[in-house]
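Late entry, written up from scratch paper. The run itself happened at the end of the previous shift, but nothing got recorded in the book at the time, so transcribing now.
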Amino acid sequence: MHQYVLWTALGAEGMGINLEQYNNPLIDARFQTAYQVPVTWSLKCQMVFGKPTGQPGEKPFKPVEER
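Output as recorded:
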């Protein structure tokens, strides 16, 4: 719910938002070292936001049968 609330609030202010999902112990180790967070923490996702500089490009999708 927090992600949804932040996404809609930032979007209402004209910000572009991207939510990156993580599941990689190598990223966790680098994150813990860089930001001195406890080793019991793990990175689940990162919400990147900022002022858009253009329109997003079209994203191609494969047909369901090819996935």
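DSSP finds two helices and two strands in the chain.
(Scratch paper discarded after transcription.)
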